[in-house]
Amino acid sequence: MFAYYFTLALRSFRRTKVLTALMVLAIALGIGASMTMLTVLHNLSGDPLPSRSDVLYHPQVDPRPARLAGADPEPPDDLAWQDALNLYALPGASRRVLTSANWLPTRLDAAGSPLTMRDTRAATADLFAMFDIPFVYGSGWSQADDEKRAQVVVITRSLNDALFGGADSVGRTLVIATRNFRVVGVIENWNPQPRFYDLNSSTFGKAAQLYMPFFTWLELPQDYGYGPMACWGQGSTGLHDPKAPNCTWAQFWVQLDDAAQASAYRRALENYSAQQRQLGRFERAPNVRLRGLVDWLDYKRVVPATVRMQTWIAFGVLLVCLVNAVGLLVSKFMRKAGEVGVRRALGASRRAVFAQCMTESALIGALGGAAGLPLAWLGLWLVRQQPMSYAASVHLDPQMLLVALMVAVGAAVLAGVWPAWRASRIAPALQVKSL
């Protein structure tokens, strides 16, 4: 039966080419606009690490004075130096990582090699396993390397290509901040979006090119900065002392494998805060947070408000296009009232006429969706040309292609319900008499 309705729909298209083309164009414009912004929203709000996000948590404690004017009730995002050391030693997590970032002067260990500033991420040894970062050559460093401040480094594939022509560079030497570092691993160009592990530096920025042990990085012979730092009270203008008690800057993540472990770790954070209060370091009652990765992104509102607003506007455009499509469908179905009357007179039920019209609507929706995909691709290309930090990360993936077609067909079917219902209510006697 569907094949018969499909054939009737094609014949109808041939008879009303202009009207059909206008409906396809209206749906294509609506789908192109809405899918462009829906894809942007999907890219920005997606899970950046789906294989690990259910076990990664971001702990927070609150070392600020009790009476701090204008203070947010939420604890600081990052840790002060003393808390970073204490929580790094706190038991209860399967893995944990301290991390921060800056730019460091780097060159090959060869005469005449040019010096270039490279985006560097400092981290403790668990970084690679916790975040499931794939290696091309070698491996990461060990906790023993962390403890002895080893001068080792992991580089990305793109930097390895630039410096070593893509060859296995494990064992080679780089001069970073005047010190010699031995390459122990090469990773893929890992850059999850949004950059959940360091939202204060750049939510949708580029990935680091160098990875080195956290404590080695802290002991470099010159102050190259310590990533975004938030301070309060006296001395808050001195942002170059990572060990200042009134400045937070160290990002901290832990791996907790199940809900029981997470609950126990939360209690450990509360106990730690209570202990620090007894010691006089903390003035506030325990004010801790332990958010999972996805909850952390929701809390930080990583999706810009303008993107959400533009998405609503784009779906408003789709709604306007559908309203126009409804009017065109009414006109189209009323034009073939005589044909419907004859079918009804020959025994076709109202349900059959309704199904025929809905098939035609769905086919128009499918054509509109197919025509809207190039428009969505063009829209995303235009977004990528904009000077926004997230622009380079937007792309149309197979999942969104399927969603676009489903939305187009669903919208066309929805738009066709009322016109099809009206067509199915046509009185056959009047239409046959008018022929």
Number of helices: 14
What is the number of beta strands?
12
Output the helix-strand order.
HHEEHEEHEHEHEEEHEEHEHHHHHH
- With strands numbered from the N-terminus, the spatial order across the biggest sheet is 3-4-9-6-8-7
Question: Strand share of the residues?
Answer: 15-25%
Estimate the global geometry from the Cα principal axes: elongated
Give the class from helix and strand content and strand pairing. alpha+beta
Report mean pLDDT, rounded to a whole number. Answer: 85
Radius of gyration from the CA trace? 30 Å
Structure description:
The protein is of the alpha+beta class. It is 49% helix and 16% strand. The chain is built from 14 helices and twelve strands. It has helices at 2-15, 17-45, 81-89, 127-130, 143-147, 157-164, 214-218, 259-278, 293-300, 305-335, 337-345, 350-384, 398-424, 428-434, and strands spanning 56-60, 79-80, 95-108, 116-123, 135-138, 152-156, 173-176, 179-187, 210-213, 230-231, 247-255, 289-292. The chain has a six-stranded mixed beta barrel with strand order 3-4-9-6-8-7. Strand 7 and strand 8 (179-187) form a beta hairpin. Helix 2 (17-45) packs across helix 13 and helix 10 (305-335) packs parallel to helix 13. The model has no long low-confidence stretch (mean pLDDT 85).
